[in-house]
Specification:
Mean pLDDT: 78
Number of helices: 2
Number of strands: 3
Strand order of the largest sheet: 1-3-2
Helix content: 10-25%
CATH topology: Ubiquitin-like (UB roll)
């Protein structure tokens, strides 16, 4: 499975509210309707909390969700 890189997922200046650690770009496996997607997203290196940027959630992810639900 190929890795999806999200250019708008810039982590510069972002840090985890819980841990205070700076976020790093890291591969994350997302699952939706029995489909798996490998996406590189901002992640806290301490607690592994993932940040999904609003532009991604309301843009590409919404399009993929609609395509999968229409099948």
């Amino acid at each position: 499975m190929s890795m999806i890189r999200i250019p708008e997922a810039d982590v510069t200046g972002w840090q985890c509210k819980t841990c205070g650690e700076p976020l790093v770009r890291k591969p994350v496996e997302l699952k939706y309707l029995d489909s798996l997607f490998n996406v590189e997203l901002p992640v806290c290196p301490a607690c592994n909390m993932v940040l999904i940027p609003e532009s991604l959630a309301m843009g590409k992810m919404r399009q993929v969700e609609q395509l999968l639900e229409d099948k």
